Amino acid sequence: MKAKSFFNRWNPEDAKIAISLYDRALELDHNHAESYLGLADCYGFIATTGFMNYHEAWEKATELTYKALSLNDKIADAYYQLANISFFVNSNYTESFRNTRKAIELQENHVEAQQFMSFLYIIAGKKDKSLNHLQIALSIDPLSQETLFYSAYFNFMIENFSQALKQLNKCLEDNPKNIPAHSVKWYCLIKLGHYKEAQNYPKMMPDDLLITGDEIGMTALTLTMKKDYKKALILIQKLLDDGDNPDSLRANLFMYLFYAIKGDVQNAFKWANLAIKNNASLLLLHFNNPLSNPIKNDPKYFETLNKLFPLFITDEEKKKKKDLLDHESSVAYTKQLLEYIEKEKPYLDPKLSLRSLAKQIDIHPNQLSWLLNESIGKNFSEFINHYRIETFKRNCKVP
What we know:
This protein has 399 residues and is mainly alpha-helical.
């Protein structure tokens, strides 16, 4: 049984069935790494689509992925799952990119990793590289509905909305409960000016797929495109007012897009920065959304672009960056960090972040990030994952 992403084909009922099958497989062989990854994929799908508590489901997916890695740390599917965790849980684009690249290095014909790499490039605005990986995915599995979806998403992002809409309709013919296809189709309708159809779109979707926050937000964006700003703002405010609900995080994104459509640079980036502060992966997903075109010529746009997608800072900008620690401080902090890791084992905390680890050893997060990359030669994810994997290996040894 091979772990495979059915993110664009699954519906919640399919995910539940898959979970029961993977559980059964693990009853037969509790050391079957691929089944742990299949379960991780299921929980990631349920988390992202809102059919289980987001944090609980991703925590379960993370636990299962590390269990698989403890059994086989050379399996491409595991790094593909880590890429999803890095993106949707940690909101860390660089980690996600590196894990996807690792999956491809281990298995070049890993179609899901090629699809995801295409996605990672296009949301950063790298069209040519995105298309290259998309074409590789098509060469591996030309009939794949998942690749058809990613192709539609690519066309949406390069503003070929009519072609994207045709491809999305094909996806939905094959699977009417394809949640991502519904979402991107909604955006296409708005950009094509099909406002009436966009406003009525919730009525066309299967009832069990509709996420309240998305319905409110997308309706608000449709009204914004129609310049009915007052009604749009009232709708988004409903999401903001419910601060304990996961939909409140969606509100940050919708507020960003609301002001971006209006061309209100100051407020658009106020909400973008709030989303970054809240570690919202949705901003990574939608920052380059064609709806934000009215603010894309502003210097703040490029500043935030580099903040979200630091892999693509130009070489000239990299040269301007100075060392954040001198040699003596670097040596001292490296020693302090490694001793702290060995003694306190902070990597056992699934919620550990770069910021929280920096606080524990009394160093600025930017300095810790620099230290890990320049002195130790690993990013935060690679550094912490090493200790987690080794711990899993030790715990799984038979006495």
